[in-house]
Every structure is written in structure tokens, then in C-alpha cells.
Amino acid sequence: MRQIFILFAVVFIGLLTGCGGPKKTAQPLVGEPKRMEMPVKDEYVPFTKDIYQKLLANKIDLKAVQYFVDQQLVLSRNLDNNKMEVVNGVIKMSNGNKVDEVVIPIYAKGICELVEGDGLRISFEEGSNFKFLNSKAYSPDNFIFAGANWKDGSCDIDYKNLRYRVNCGTCGSAADAKLVVKQSFLDNSNINSRTLKGRTVAGGL
Q1: What pTM was estimated for this model as a whole?
Q2: What are the tens digits of pLDDT across the range 36-50?
Q3: Which residues does residue 116 pair with via DSSP β-bridges, in sequence order?
Q4: In this structure, is residue 156 part of a structural domain?
């Protein structure tokens, strides 16, 4: 009888310890997804008239250069409320009106499709281009975004045969948007440049 009791006690204790189950191991924390790195501003330099002339002097094709725009540009046009067709962008509601909006992000890549006497025609997607003006009257150094009917920093442009209003999403005026290039491009282009020290007359300081 005593042996049966001891056996029962051993089995009972075994059941108690077994009910605890295996210890749970801590699961490794899943790391946060990597954030998209924003372009570093210092990588870019303004594409100026001086750089333009040096490229020509060194017989570098302007259409082989990778251009960027240094501001965000937002193109928009009002849609007929009775129509739902959107040709180029996305539909947004603005004051109860449907708006077709196209965004050119900051540092978007562009290529030169046409060289004009007072600027360049830059394309950010196939089938369209925008004028970047370089003139003594408006912008003697930089190549700035050009349009028509300017008012309060916005202007009209024709985009894929449709009229859009352009605003700058990151600055006060669309005219503040200018062409830039990467510093590494200039470093690798072997542009010969030197600064003259000038000449002093005999006996001068």
C-alpha cells in the first residue's frame, strides 16, 4: 500500500512540473524598415552660364548632361466636374472642384531635349519638356523655370497639350526653381579652368 502511495505521489509531481510547458524564448525584434535617403544638397551645384560655356569650350554635349531641378514643382488644372478623365496626374479636390495634379519632385532627373538661344528645354518624362531660362534681363547666371502669365509666384505652362498652373511646393515662386548638376559630374568632366592673377605695371605694388 505504501509503495502504491509513493508511486502515485511521484506521478502527481511529474504532472505538476510538466504543466508549466517549455519556456518561451524572446523573439528578436524586427528592425524598422530603412527610410529612403533624401538627396544631399551639397552634392548638387547650380548649372550656371559659366559652366554652360565651359562645357561648350570643352566640346561636351549639353544633351549628355544629367540635369536636376532644385525645387518641387506642382502642376495643376481644374477638371470639369461632369468628367472623371485624368490624363496626366491624380485627382484631388480643391474647394469642391476636381483638380488634375502632377508633381515634379525635388532633384528630379531631367535631360536636355533642345538648346535655345536663351535657355534649355528640359524633359522629366517622355513627351514633355519645360523651358529653363538664362537671360541678362531675368537670370544672367542660373537657368530658372520659365512660364507665362506670372502672378503671386505661379505661372502657366503647356504640358502634354494641356494648360497647367505651376506653383513651387518648396519655395515662394516657381521662378526660384533652377537647374543643378552633381558636383561629381564636374569633377569627372576634366573641365580645364584657371584663374588669372592679373598683371602689375613696372614698379607697381
Answers
A1: 0.69
A2: 455 666 799 999 999
A3: 119
A4: yes
